[in-house]
Amino acid sequence: MTARWPADPSHIAQAAEQLRAGAVIAFPTDTLYAVGTRAADPVAVARLYEVKHRPSAQPMVWLVLDRAQVQRFAIVSAAAAELMARFWPGPLTLVLPTRMKTNGPTIAVRAPDHQVALALLRSLDEPIASSSANRAGASPPVDADQVIAGLRDRVDIVLDGGPCRIGHPSTILDLSGPTPRILRQGVISASELVSPSPAGGGQGGGG
After folding, report:
1. Which of 28, 35, 91, 207 could cross-link 187 (Cys pair, CB 3.0–4.6 Å)?
2. How far is Cα 96 from Cα 70, in angstroms, rounded to an integer?
């Protein structure tokens, strides 16, 4: 049976321990509720695909803390670094060339602008492979009730952090080739991506 935990510091730390042990959990982000597991655990990632009913050819997004964490496993170009500075943490997913030999030529990464997701990433201290917390084809959830109604007992833990602030998916921008391509139009528009950098850098923190 799925455990529903309040997203307080103690339960977030416990959830990180469960991720290390191979758990699949749901938690809030700035955009939507996510379902995820430890990205470096292939058995847990395979289970995540089963939970989602997602084809294995569709890669998961790796949620990360920041650019420094991304540089451990992906190639961060000057253009990618500039976009991270402007929009991270926030609703922008970047597809980058990977340094790894086992995950294909590219990897999708995002730093979520939500205090619960960021606290979970800090406690785990490594990326979380993730997707929206719904089965393939179903509406993505914006609160814990919707997660439980949709996934039922397929996940181990739901961290209840209240409703998501944005309620719409992130924009996905592919920077792996010679020309940037928007793969999914989300919260951030194409015009925002090409506009001059705002004073003060990124979108800011918080939940």
Report:
1. 91
2. 10
> What is the pTM assigned to this prediction?
0.93
Q: How many CA atoms lie less than 13 Å away from 113 in the CB half-sphere?
A: 23
Integer Cα distance of 100 and 122 in angstroms = 22
| Phi and psi, residue 164, nearest 5° | -70, 145
Mean pLDDT over 9-20 rounds to 98
| Structure-token match 């977030």, residue found | 12
Indicate the DSSP class of residue 55: -
* Structure token pair of residue 180: 């940037």
- Which residues, at least 6 apart from 94, have a Cβ–Cβ distance to it below 8 Å? 80, 83, 84, 108, 109, 110, 172, 173, 175
Q: What does the pLDDT look like over 118-173, one tens digit per residue?
A: 999 999 999 999 999 999 999 999 999 999 999 999 999 999 999 999 999 999 99
